[in-house]
Amino acid sequence: MTRFKSTFPPAITAQYFIYFGVMGVFLPYFNLYCFHIGLDGVQIGVLSSIRSITAIIFPLVWGALADRLNQKKLIFVSCCFLSTAAWGGFLLTTNFAAMLVITVFYGIFYSPIISFMEALTVDTLGPEKQSYGKVRAWGSGSFIIMVLTMGWVIDRFSIAVIISAILAGSFLQALFSVKLPFRQADQKTPQDRGLGVFLKKPVIVFLCAGFLMLVSHGGYYGFFSIHLEQAGYGSAFIGAAWALASAMEILSMVASKTIFKSFSMERVLIFTFFVAALRWMLLYFFISPGWILLSQTLHAVTYGMFHMASILYMDSQSPNHAKTMGQSLNNAVTYGLGLMMGFFVNGYVFELLGSRMVFIMGSGIALLGGILFGGFVLISKQNTGGRIQNKTKT
After folding, report:
1. Does residue 392 fall inside a structural domain?
2. Is residue 48 part of a domain?
3. Which of 17, 140, 151, 180 is 20 to 30 Å from the Cα of 246, by its Cα?
4. Domain extent for 152
5. Distance of alpha carbon 282 from alpha carbon 55, whole angstroms
6. Residue 21, Cβ neighbours under 10 Å: how many?
7. Where does residue 186 rank: exposed (0-12), middle (13-18), buried (19+ CB within 10 A)?
8. Average pLDDT, the chain
9. How many CA atoms lie within 13 A of 244 on its CB side?
């Protein structure tokens, strides 16, 4: 599959496979589960926002603690087991207030997991960082398997089964986490380990644009499944739509090395914003199966290419002693703050105006992000004679 396949630690690919397999149950079906147990759009938006709030704060807290104590593996393994224990609380209640408390504790320990995984993967790849997508594709493959499997299971049993499925997957990931090859960092590193090393224009503009990109995704991740169910589609079609998106995502990730050898990270990022604007516009105008599935193929760009470019761009801007913090900051601002705002706002828009308005609003927000980042890149090129400096000093 790849040149590094024989030497790349299987424990890392196993983590991606399990982590995104769990996400293949959670993302399409958890909000739908909440809808079925009687929560309204605002309550669903609040739960989603709480998860995002924890994803803003705690990746930074755990990342800083791991870098300072040089105990990345201990913190990662602990977070895996404790988040699994917290998720078990959903088996005991469907009360909104209780679910809110469980969501807080779950988010505290679950939110830093992906940041640690991303930093470990890029560090392990070394000079082959452009091949990151080929490792990440294992996660997309498992996402497809679980989306399709759970769609079939839900149609034949009950949507409540997703709680047990997520618990089982999380426990399996926790067991595998003890095998991860975290390396001890050099203790003779620069003194500035805080966020100050990221206070520079390329990072600030990138994070602002990334924030807008994920705000635009709030309607998709929060209400796409509900949007389809209200349009008359069953769980099997909903699962197939999510699976198609991940299949397209795999194609872009497998081609990651070719993509980033042919185009700069900046160009890839700008392209993804404008494709996202088109994708959400399609969901606003069309509800037929063909158009829905066509819009899902654009996930290859709006998630696959955007995610890869974001990881690599942030890595290029992060000093060696702050790689984990860099990925934590990226996840906190985008998948944390961005999705929180997206979930919260879209919860109210969904309740007041319906699901179609969620997507046209997302289209405008994605377009704004593209204009912001694209404008910065254009100005930077003019100021540097057509060159953009990506690399940070370490």
Report:
1. no
2. yes
3. 180
4. 10-182+194-383
5. 29
6. 25
7. exposed
8. 87
9. 16
**What is the per-residue pLDDT across 98-153, written as a single tens digit (0 to 9) for each?**
999 999 999 999 999 998 888 888 877 777 777 788 888 888 889 889 988 888 89
Residues 120, 136: contact at Cβ < 8 Å? no
Q: Has residue 31 been placed in a domain?
A: yes
35-58 per-position pLDDT tens digit: 999 998 889 888 987 887 888 899
Contact 207, 329 (CB under 8 A): yes
Backbone angles phi, psi at 233, to 5 degrees: -85, 150
Per-residue pLDDT at 392? 44
pLDDT of 387:
57
Query: How many domains, in total, are found in the chain?
Result: 1
C-alpha closest to that of 220 among 290, 151, 277: 277
Nearest to 283 by CA among 322, 241, 314, 319: 241
Cβ-based neighbour number of residue 156 at 10 Å:
9
The CA-based dihedral angle spanning residues 228, 231, 232, 238, taken in that order and rounded to the nearest 10 degrees = -10
Supply φ then ψ for residue 268, to 5 degrees: -60, -45
- CB-based contact 323:122 (threshold 8 Å): yes
Distance CA 128, CA 110 (A): 28
132: nearest Cα among 272, 8, 232, 37: 8
Residue 65 has pLDDT above 70, yes or no: yes
**Considering the domain boundaries, does residue 94 fall inside one?**
yes
**CB atoms inside a 10 Å sphere around CB 385:** 6
> What token pair was written down for 358?
């969620």
CA nearest 136: which of 6, 268, 319, 8? 8
Round to whole Å and give the CA distance between 302 and 323. 24
Contact 341, 218 (CB under 8 A): yes
Q: What is the CATH number of the domain that holds 335?
A: 1.20.1250.20
